[in-house]
Each structure stands twice: as structure tokens, then as C-alpha cells.
């Protein structure tokens, strides 16, 4: 397997991933579905297993030595992952993933609207007619919580349109974000289009409206150098299983003042200072938002994942993936009967392409590729409104990561070139 990227030893990297390493029978997995779930390096698997074998105990709850050790590992993991996104440890809340983080924020705002929380929580309270702004490109996880919040509070949900080339319409954003806007929630990178959105411009518009900004960083954290405080967003979420880490772990980043004033969503053990039969008092962030049993081994696994990415260097990761994306996009463009979504010239991107095969349903195309050992995603990718915007119900999505190679992209392109002929949809 060859590579033209001098900065990365791809053969060595692939050996770090048990599922991707060359197999004794000579077969290998061509995994191009990392936007859904990435593969895990051995270091991540080993870190989680080693913790379970040697230090497994409840954190923040026991006075015995094992509990103290587990707590230290847990909080060291928080510091490691927070540092990966440029944050301080007390700015990172552990969640079960980005979906949980977004729901946490939306329900916390709803609790503030209901008069719950500290006196300072009132700054998040919504009034009927206040506006929540999303984009036409949202993953359902960054759309449905705001729909529900609007329904509960009488707020109005509005959206920023997308151009035909997949870029966000900033004129639409300027017309939508206004005096009644209270929240602007948007993706750093679309999970269908792969385009890096103009965070700075959107944050400036939101700041002018004194609105809260919520960033979905699921598709940027594994692929771009990420400094959330520099981006100046108020809140952001990311998911471990998309960035070489375990399932059921993710992070909610928040500006210190925002987290300090938000009321909790889930309540219970581990997030309290005093509990009475009539009322209770809660810990400061991040523990205020971490009720119940924590995902300890998963957090330790995620810390190992970000150490692995840091060891390669996020600049090198991004450069490698940009080159793979260009190879994939240019190759798909050259094939007859292939329609790419978000094919904007000059846009910053991650290594992700969603496309339609003319005359062939996306699920049939995906099965054709799977029969040739190529794993891709098919469907609406939890972005039905965006697909409807482009007149589609489903697409094929190929998404690469640090462990993918030129050869794999070429094999994808060669296989895609045969889909229409196989189904009698074209020459």
C-alpha cells in the first residue's frame, strides 16, 4: 500500500488499527465510513482495558485507594481532552456524545425559562416570540432539540439557507439573525457536504444580537486543529466515537461564565453539595452537569485517542485528509452520472463526499460497494431537510480519516465507475 504523504507513515499507522491491518488471508478492509464511526487504534483499546483491569472503581464517591486512583485517571482524562480543544478542564463536561450534549443545553435553557437554576440563569430564559436559529445543513441532533425547545417555550425556530454549491448563505444569516435571536446553533462542518463553515462570521452576527452560540464540532474535532476559545463560541459539542475513541463518551465545551450560569438538566448523585427533602444545592461546573454514574473507562479511552492524534499532529492529519478529499472529489467529478453534493469551488473541507448515482438507489450502490469490500454510508445521514433541499432522499457518503490511503480512494473510484453499468443505468 503506497502513500505520497511524506509526513505520515501510513503503513505504521494502519498497523495501529487492528480492524484495518493487513490480514493473514491477504484481504483488507477499505473503511470509508469514519464520519459515522471511526476505527480505534490499539492504544485506545488498551487504555480502556488496562483501566478496567487495574483501577476500575466509582469516581468522586469513595475514600478508598482504588476510588482515588480511578478519580485521578478520570480527571487526568478530562484535562487531556480539554487541552485538545484548547479549553481548561473545568470547561469540559463529559456527556455520552454530542446528541446528549445538545439536549443538555436545550433542556437547561428550558429549565432557565421555567425559572429553575441560579438567579443568573434568568439570562437564558426565553419569551414567546424569541428566536432560535439553526441552518439548513443540520444533523438531526442539532435540529430536534431546538424544535422541542421552541415547542415548549413559544420560541420561533428559524434557519439559515444554503447555496446550491453547499456553502452557507451569509446574506440569509444576516437577515435571519436579529434582535429576537437568542440562540444560534450550527455545525462547524456539515456531515453531508464536508464544507467547513464560516464560524467567525456567524459568531460575530450572533454576538451583535447578544445571542448564545452553539457549535456542533463532531466532524471537525477529528480532522482539524481545533481551538474552541479562539473560535469564541459559547458552547460546543463533539463525540468520541468519531475521533478514534470509544462509544458513549463525548464532550460539551462551554465558556466558563456560560456554564456557571446554566441550570442543570439531569439531576441526581455526584452533582450536589446539599440535598434536602424540599430543595437542594448543586455543584459548580463541570460536575453540575454530570449526574449519576460516569463513563470512566470511556473517558480514559477518549484521552488515549486524542493523545494518539496529537502524536501524529493535527496539522499533518488535516493535510493528509485534504489531499485524500481532493483526490476523491476530483475523481468522482470525472465519472459520468455522479452528482456531488456541496461541490463548491475553493471551500475548506474535510475528507468527506456525498454523492448520488444517476438511476441507482443509494442503498443499491452501497451494497455494490460493500460486495467489493468498501464500507460507505448510505441514506440521509440524519440530515433529511438538507437532502430535500437538493431534491434527494438518500446519497452515498464516503468519508476518510488519518488511516486511509490513496490506493483506497482509487479503489473506491474504480468501483463507483462500475455501478451504473452493473444496474443497467448507464454505459
Automatic annotation (TrEMBL):
Cofactor(s) needed by this chain: pyridoxal 5'-phosphate
Keywords, alphabetical: Pyridoxal phosphate, Transferase
InterPro entries: Aminotrans_V_dom (IPR000192), Cys_dSase_SufS (IPR010970), PyrdxlP-dep_Trfase (IPR015424), PyrdxlP-dep_Trfase_major (IPR015421), PyrdxlP-dep_Trfase_small (IPR015422)
EC top class, as a word: transferase
Entry EC number(s): 2.8.1.7
Transmembrane annotation, as ranges: none
Pfam family, one: Aminotran_5
Tree of life domain: Bacteria
Start and end residues of each Aminotransferase class V domain: 30-412
Keyword Transferase in record: yes
Family: Belongs to the class-V pyridoxal-phosphate-dependent aminotransferase family. Csd subfamily.
NCBIfam families (UniProt xref): sufS (TIGR01979)
Name assigned to this protein: cysteine desulfurase
Organism: Microbacterium awajiense
Highest classification ranks of the organism: Bacteria, Bacillati, Actinomycetota, Actinomycetes, Micrococcales
Amino acid at each position: 500500500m503506497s502513500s505520497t504523504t511524506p509526513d505520515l507513515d501510513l503503513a505504521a499507522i494502519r498497523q495501529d488499527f487492528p480492524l484495518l491491518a493487513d490480514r493473514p488471508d491477504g484481504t483488507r478492509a477499505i473503511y470509508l465510513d469514519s464520519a459515522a464511526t471511526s476505527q480505534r487504534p490499539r492504544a485506545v483499546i488498551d487504555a480502556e482495558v488496562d483501566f478496567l483491569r487495574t483501577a476500575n472503581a466509582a469516581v468522586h464517591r469513595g475514600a478508598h485507594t482504588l476510588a482515588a486512583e480511578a478519580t485521578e485517571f478520570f480527571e487526568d482524562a478530562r484535562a487531556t481532552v480539554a487541552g485538545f480543544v484548547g479549553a481548561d478542564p473545568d470547561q469540559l463536561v463529559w456527556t455520552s456524545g454530542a446528541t446528549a450534549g445538545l439536549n443538555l443545553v436545550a433542556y437547561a435553557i428550558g429549565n432557565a425559562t421555567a425559572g429553575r437554576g441560579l438567579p443568573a440563569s434568568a439570562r437564558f430564559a426565553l419569551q414567546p416570540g424569541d428566536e432560535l436559529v439553526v441552518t439548513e445543513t443540520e444533523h438531526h441532533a442539532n435540529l430536534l432539540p431546538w424544535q422541542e425547545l421552541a415547542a415548549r417555550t413559544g420560541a420561533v425556530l428559524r434557519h439559515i439557507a444554503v447555496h446550491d454549491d453547499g456553502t452557507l448563505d451569509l446574506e440569509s444569516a444576516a437577515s435571519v439573525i436579529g434582535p429576537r435571536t437568542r440562540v444560534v446553533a450550527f455545525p462547524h462542518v456539515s456531515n453531508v457536504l464536508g464544507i467547513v463553515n464560516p464560524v467567525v462570521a456567524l459568531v460575530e452576527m450572533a454576538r451583535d444580537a447578544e445571542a448564545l452560540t452553539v457549535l456542533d464540532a463532531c466532524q471537525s474535532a477529528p480532522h482539524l486543529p481545533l481551538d474552541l476559545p479562539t473560535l469564541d463560541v459559547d458552547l460546543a459539542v463533539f463525540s468520541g466515537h468519531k475521533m478514534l475513541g470509544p462509544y458513549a463518551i463525548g464532550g460539551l465545551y462551554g465558556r466558563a461564565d456560560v456554564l456557571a450560569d446554566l441550570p442543570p438538566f439531569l439531576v441526581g448523585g455526584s452533582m450536589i453539595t446539599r440535598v434536602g427533602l424540599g430543595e437542594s444545592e448543586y455543584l459548580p461546573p463541570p460536575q453540575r452537569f454530570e449526574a449519576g454514574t460516569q463513563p470512566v473507562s470511556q473517558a480514559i479511552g477518549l484521552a488515549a485517542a486524542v493523545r494518539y492524534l496529537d502524536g501524529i499532529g493535527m496539522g499533518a492529519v488535516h493535510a493528509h485528509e485534504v489531499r485524500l478529499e481532493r483526490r476523491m472529489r476530483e475523481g468522482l467529478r470525472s465519472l459520468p452520472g455522479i452528482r456531488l453534493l456541496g461541490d463548491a469551488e475553493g471551500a475548506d473541507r474535510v475528507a468527506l463526499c456525498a454523492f448520488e448515482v444517476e438511476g441507482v438507489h443509494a442503498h443499491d450502490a452501497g451494497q455494490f460497494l460493500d460486495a467489493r469490500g468498501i464500507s460507505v454510508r448510505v441514506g440521509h445521514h440524519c440530515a433529511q431537510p438538507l437532502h430535500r433541499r437538493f431534491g434527494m432522499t438518500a446519497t452515498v457518503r464516503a468519508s476518510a480519516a488519518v488511516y486511509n490511503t490513496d490506493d483506497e480512494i482509487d479503489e473506491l473510484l474504480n468501483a463507483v465507475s462500475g455501478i451504473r453499468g452493473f444496474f443497467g443505468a448507464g454505459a
